[in-house]
Design goal:
The complex is a heterotrimer of chains A (about 500), B (about 80) and C (about 280). In chain A, helix 3 (about 100-110) runs parallel beside helix 4 (about 125-130) and helix 7 crosses helix 8. Chain A has helices at about 45-55, 75-85, 100-110, 125-130, 140-150, 190-195, 245-260, 275-290, 305-310, 325-335, 345, 390-395, 445-450, 460-470, and strands at about 40-45, 60-65, 90-95, 110-115, 135-140, 160, 165, 170-175, 195-200, 220-225, 265-270, 295-300, 315-325, 340, 360-365, 365-370, 375, 400-405, 410, 410-415, 430-435, 440, 460, 485-490, 495-500. Chain A contains 14 helices and 25 strands. Chain A has about 500 residues and is of the alpha/beta class. Chain A folds into two domains: about 45-225, Glutaconate Coenzyme A-transferase; about 235-490, Glutaconate Coenzyme A-transferase. In chain B, about 40% of the residues lie in helices and about 30% in strands. In chain B, helix 1 packs across helix 2. Chain B has a four-stranded mixed beta sheet with strand order 1-2-4-3, with helices on one face. Chain B has one domain (about 5-80). Chain B is globular, with a radius of gyration of 11 Å. Chain C has helices at about 15, 40-55, 70-80, 95-110, 125-130, 130-135, 150-155, 165-180, 195-205, 220-230, 230-245, 260-275, and strands at about 5-10, 25-30, 60-65, 85-90, 120-125, 145, 185, 210-215, 250-255, 255-260. Chain C is α/β, with parallel strands linked by helices and about 280 residues long. Chain C has twelve helices and ten strands. Chain C folds into two domains: about 5-230, Phosphoenolpyruvate-binding domains (TIM Barrel), CATH 3.20.20; about 230-275, no CATH class. Chains in contact: A-B, A-C, B-C. At the B-C interface, helix 2 of B face helix 1 and helix 2 of C.
C-alpha cells in the first residue's frame, strides 16, 4: 500500500493523507485516570514498585526524556526488567539517548519487543536499524505522542515519571533538587492517562511551591539516591556552531527573515536543536537589537540563548516544553515570564497549541527532496539517528517553516531527488536555506512576491539540487533491504513512511 | 620497494598509496563507499589511463573527497613513487 | 577595489571547495606558509586541478613560495593559467617583484594567455618598507599587503593590539597606494575569536587610508567587508549629491555643505563601490 506521498505503508496501518486530514476526525480522549491510593505512597526502590504494581511480561511502560542524556531512571527500570527477565515488554519513551544503551541488550534478548519514541540515537538506534527488535518501532512526533496517549492508541500500564523535586504525595516539579531539569512538559500525557503512575525522585521536600506534577494522579513515589546527571542534560546539539559554512547559512537565514518582514514587533519564533539552527538566533538577535524590535514569545526546547534575550527584555515570554541547558533550568525557576508548557499545549494537533501561533520556525534536515519533503529520522545509509521530535508539529503550525542545511556533507548530497525517509511532508515546508542558494516552495506565492527584488540567491529546489550534484557527483542508488523494522507516524498516527532494516 | 603516499584522512580528502607492481590492483576504502565506490574506481582508472600506467598497486582511504581531489592525490602519490 | 582577501591553505580540499561562499572579494590560495615543505608538490597539483574544475566567483590570488628558491618557480610552472588573477609575492623587494614580472610575461606569452596576471607584493621586511614607493609604481602591481607579524619580527619590535609599532608602514603603504592608484591591504588580525578587536583594528587601518584587509578565517570576512564598504549613510549622501548635480552647475551648497568637484568625484567613487559590492 502507498500513501499520498508515494511511500510504502505496511498492511494494517492507515496511510498518511495530508497534514490537515486529522481535522476531519473528531478528537477522542480516554478517561483521565486519578490515583486511588489514599494511603502512604512512598517506596524505596524501583524493585519495590515492580512488586507493588505487579509489573510483569507484556506490559507497556512509559518515560519522559527531560533528563536527556543524563537520565538514570529509564536505565534503572531497564535493569529491573533484565534481572526479572520479563519478556515482550513495550517501552514508550518520549526520546531515547546514547546513555540508554542497556535497552539494546533488552531488545536483543527479547525482553523488549516494541518501542514507541519520538527521537532515537546511539546504540539502541543501531540495534533497531540492524533488525534486532522482534516487534515494531513506532516513531511519533512530540505533539503526536500526546495525541496517541490521550486517544488510547498507546495504552500505558505504568508510567515512570522522573521528578527532580517532589513531596510525599507526589506533587512535584523539575525546578529544584540536585537533578533539576526544568520543564516536565512531555510527562503530562503519561501522568493523566497511564493506568498507574510512579514518580521517581531524589529530592523529597515537605511542600512543593510550584506544582507541575499533581499528586491526584500519582500512585507511588519512589525515593532513590540519584535520578540523573545534570551534565548529561546539555547534550551536543545545544551549542552554536563555529563552522564557517553553518554561520554563513545562519546569517543568510536572518537576512531572509528580515526581508520577509518576519522580524517585526511582537513576532514569535522557535528554533530546533543543532549548531547551525541555533546560530540563526544569534543573527536574529543582532537585527532585533539594531532595529529595536521585541519578540512576543519564543518556544520549544529552550537554551541560554533565548533566556539571555528574555532577561534583556528582547523577548516577552518563553514557552518551554524542554530545557536544553542548565541556564534554561535556572531561568524557568526564577523568571516569571518563562513558562513551562505540557506536550498538549505545545503541539497536540487538536489543541490551540503554541506551534499554531508561531510566525516562523527554523529546523534542520538530513535530507530534503524536490517536493520539499524532509528527513530527520535516518542517515542516507538507513541508520536511524534522530526522529521528528517537534519537527513535523512546528512545521505544520508555524506560518513560515524554514529548513537550514548545507547542500552536501562529506560528499553526500542533502538536497536530492530521492530521500531515504520522509519525516515531515513538503506541504508544510516553505523555505530551504543553504550556503549556495535559497529555495521557496512554489505554492508560497506570497513569499516569492515579497522576495522578487531581493539580492539573495533564490532559485528553484531543482536548481539547488543540481548544484549539490555538480559538486558531489550522482550517488549510486542504495539497495534497500525489504525487512520492515518500524514506521514513521505523522501527528495523527497515520503512516508517513516505513523504516527498513539497514 | 617503490612506494608513494599522498593526501590525508581529513574530511573531504583521501590518502592514496601507490606502489610499483606487475599487476593492476586497486583497493578502495571510503566513508561513502555505498554511494560513490564505483565513481572512485572510475576516476582512478581514468587517471591511470591518462598517465599511461597499466600495472600498479593503489590503496585509497577516502573521507568523501570529490573527484578532483582523488585525481590530484593519485597523481602526487605516483610522482612520489617514481622519484 | 578589493575590501577583503581570505587566506586558504592550498592543501586543504575541504576549505578550498567552500571558498566561494564566504563573500570575500579575493581568495589567496596559500602555497607558502600554510603548506609544509614536504607537501608543497602535492599542494601544487591539488590547487591546479581545483582551479581547473571550479569556476570562481572571486578573484583568484596565489601566494607562491619565494622565487629565489626552486619552489616558487615550480609554483609558477604548475599554476600560471587563465584561471588565476594575481600572484602574491612573499618577502617582496623591488628586485624580486621585477623578476616575477619578467617570469609572468614569459609564461603568459608561452601559454598564450589572454590576461595580464597582477602582482601583490607582501611587504614583511624593514628594507621592503623603505622601498614601498618604488614597488607601488611597478607594472602589474595593483595592491600591496602589509605583513606585520614577520615585519615586527624583522624589526625586533612587539606586535600589539594597539598597533603603534606598525603605524609607519600602514601609513606609508596607504599613501603610496593612493598615489599610484592601487589597493593598500592591511595585515591580518590574528585572534580569530575576537570579532570586536578585529573590527576596531580594521577601522584603525581604514582611518589611516588603507582600503582593504586580509583575513585568516572566514568568520572575519563580514566584519572586514562592513568596515571597508561605504556605509548606508555615505551612500544616501552620495546619491543626494549626485542627484543635485543634475540641476546645479559648478560649486553649490547642499544641506549647508559646500559641494565642489573633489567632493562630487568622491561621491561618484562611493556609488561605484556600492554598485560593485552589490549594496545598491
Amino acid at each position: 500500500m502507498k500513501n499520498s506521498l508515494g511511500r510504502y505503508v505496511p498492511e494494517g496501518f492507515i496511510p498518511f493523507q495530508s497534514s490537515r486530514a486529522f481535522l476531519e476526525q473528531p478528537r477522542t480522549r480516554e478517561k483521565i485516570i486519578l490515583s486511588e491510593n489514599k494511603g502512604n505512597k512512598k517506596l524505596s526502590s524501583i524493585s519495590g514498585a515492580f512488586d507493588r504494581l505487579g509489573i510483569g511480561a507484556d506490559m507497556t511502560l512509559s518515560f519522559h526524556h527531560h533528563l536527556r542524556n543524563g537520565d538514570l531512571v529509564m536505565n534503572l527500570v531497564f535493569e529491573e526488567i533484565k534481572s526479572r527477565n520479563l519478556k515482550n515488554m513495550t517501552i514508550a519513551a518520549s526520546s531515547i539517548f546514547p546513555n540508554n544503551r542497556i535497552l539494546s541488550e533488552l531488545i536483543e534478548n527479547g525482553n523488549v519487543t516494541n518501542v514507541y519514541t519520538n527521537y532515537l540515537n546511539g546504540e539502541v538506534a543501531k540495534s533497531i536499524s540492524e533488525g534486532k527488535l522482534q516487534g515494531m518501532l513506532y516513531m511519533d512526533t512530540h505533539g503526536g505522542r500526546s495525541r496517541a496517549i490521550e486517544s488510547g492508541d498507546i495504552k500505558i500500564d505504568v508510567a515512570f515519571i522522573a521528578v527532580p523535586c517532589s513531596d510525599e504525595a507526589g506533587n512535584g516539579n523539575g525546578l529544584s533538587g540536585p537533578s533539576a531539569c526544568g520543564s516536565l512538559g512531555y510527562a503530562i500525557p503519561d501522568l493523566l492517562y497511564a493506568k498507574k503512575k510512579v514518580v521517581v525522585t531524589d529530592y523529597l521536600v515537605p511542600k512543593v511551591e510550584y506544582v507541575e506534577i499533581e499528586a491526584k494522579y500519582v500512585d507511588y513515589v519512589v525515593v532513590i539516591d540519584k535520578i540523573g546527571n545534570q551534565s548529561g542534560i546539555e547534550s551536543g546539539t545545544t551549542r552554536i556552531t563555529r563552522d564557517p559554512v553553518g554561520l554563513k547559512i545562519a546569517e543568510t537565514t536572518a537576512l531572509l527573515l528580515s526581508e520577509l518582514g518576519l522580524i517585526r514587533e511582537n513576532f514569535s519564533m522557535q528554533t530546533g536543536a543543532g549548531g547551525t539552527v541555533l546560530a540563526v538566533t544569534r543573527f536574529i538577535r543582532e537585527i532585533m537589537e539594531k532595529e529595536n524590535v521585541k519578540a512576543g514569545f519564543a518556544s520549544g526546547g529552550i537554551t541560554h540563548y533565548f533566556t539571555e534575550m528574555l532577561k534583556k527584555g528582547l523577548i516577552n515570554k518563553l514557552y518551554d516544553v524542554q530545557c536544553f541547558d542548565l541556564e534554561a533550568v535556572k531561568s524557568l525557576a526564577e523568571n516569571p515570564n518563562h513558562h513551562s508548557i505540557s506536550a498538549f499545549k505545545y503541539a497536540n494537533p487538536y489543541e490551540d497549541a503554541i506551534v499554531n501561533h508561531l510566525d516562523f520556525v527554523i529546523l534542520g534536515a538530513t535530507e530534503v527532496d524536490l517536493s520539499f519533503n524532509v528527513n530527520v529520522t535516518t542517515a542516507s545509509n538507513g541508520l536511524i539517528m534522530g526522529g521528528s521530535g517537534g519537527h513535523a508539529d512546528t512545521a505544520s503550525g508555524a506560518k513560515v517553516s524554514i529548513i537550514v542545511t548545507p547542500l552536501f556533507k562529506t560528499r553526500l548530497p542533502i538536497i536530492r531527488p530521492e530521500i531515504t525517509t520522509i519525516t515531515t511532508p513538503g506541504e508544510d515546508i516553505d523555505i530551504v536555506v543553504t550556503e549556495r542558494g535559497i529555495a521557496i516552495n512554489p505554492k508560497r506565492i506570497d513569499l516569492l512576491e515579497k522576495l522578487k527584488n531581493s539580492h539573495l540567491p533564490i532559485m528553484s529546489i531543482k536548481d539547488l539540487s543540481k548544484i549539490a550534484l555538480a559538486y558531489t557527483g550522482i550517488p549510486e542508488v542504495r539497495v534497500k533491504k525489504e525487512q520492515v523494522i518500524g514506521v514513521v507516524r505523522y501527528r495523527d498516527q497515520t503512516i508517513i513512511d516505513t523504516l527498513f532494516q539497514m | 620497494m617503490k612506494i608513494g603516499l599522498a593526501g590525508s584522512i581529513e574530511s573531504s580528502d583521501c590518502l592514496i598509496t601507490a606502489e610499483a607492481s606487475n599487476e593492476l590492483d586497486i583497493k578502495i576504502e571510503s566513508s561513502v563507499y555505498e554511494f560513490f565506490g564505483k565513481q572512485i574506481r572510475k576516476v582512478i582508472l581514468e587517471t591511470l589511463e591518462e598517465l599511461g600506467i597499466k600495472t600498479i598497486r593503489i590503496h585509497i582511504n577516502d573521507k568523501g573527497a570529490l573527484d578532483y581531489t582523488i585525481r590530484s592525490r593519485l597523481i602526487s602519490a605516483i610522482k612520489r613513487m617514481e622519484s | 577595489m578589493r575590501r577583503s582577501l581570505l587566506f586558504i591553505p592550498a592543501n586543504k580540499p575541504g576549505m578550498m571547495q567552500n571558498a566561494d561562499i564566504f563573500a570575500a572579494d579575493s581568495i589567496i590560495f596559500d602555497l607558502e606558509d600554510a603548506v609544509a615543505f614536504s607537501e608543497k608538490d602535492s599542494a601544487r597539483i591539488l590547487l591546479h586541478n581545483f582551479l581547473q574544475t571550479f569556476k570562481p566567483n572571486y578573484e583568484v590570488i596565489i601566494r607562491i613560495n619565494q622565487i629565489d628558491h626552486i619552489n616558487g618557480l615550480l609554483d609558477l610552472e604548475a599554476l600560471v593559467s587563465d584561471r588565476i588573477d594575481a600572484i602574491m609575492l612573499p618577502k617582496a623587494r623591488t628586485a624580486s617583484v621585477k623578476k616575477l614580472a619578467e617570469l609572468l610575461a614569459s609564461f603568459e606569452k608561452a601559454r598564450k594567455l589572454k590576461k595580464t596576471i597582477k602582482i601583490i607584493p607582501l611587504l614583511e621586511l624593514a628594507a621592503a618598507i623603505l622601498e614601498t614607493e618604488a614597488i607601488a609604481c611597478l607594472p602589474r602591481v595593483d595592491g600591496i599587503l602589509l605583513g606585520a607579524e614577520d615585519l615586527t619580527n624583522d624589526m625586533e619590535t612587539e606586535r600589539t593590539i594597539i598597533g603603534e609599532e606598525i603605524f609607519y608602514p600602514r601609513s606609508k603603504i596607504a599613501y603610496a597606494a593612493k598615489a599610484y592608484g592601487i589597493d593598500a591591504i592591511d595585515t591580518p588580525f590574528t585572534d580569530v575569536n575576537d570579532d570586536q578587536g578585529l573590527s576596531q583594528d580594521a577601522k584603525k587601518a581604514k582611518n589611516l587610508g588603507m582600503t582593504a584587509k586580509a583575513a585568516i578565517h572566514p568568520n572575519q570576512i563580514r566584519y572586514i567587508n562592513e568596515v571597508f564598504s561605504p556605509s548606508k549613510d555615505q551612500i544616501a549622501w552620495a546619491l543626494k549629491v549626485l542627484e543635485a548635480t543634475k540641476t546645479n552647475l559648478g560649486v553649490f551648497s547642499l544641506d549647508g555643505k559646500m559641494i565642489d568637484k573633489p567632493i562630487i568625484e568622491r561621491c561618484q567613487k562611493i556609488i561605484e563601490k556600492a554598485k560593485k559590492y552589490r549594496i545598491i
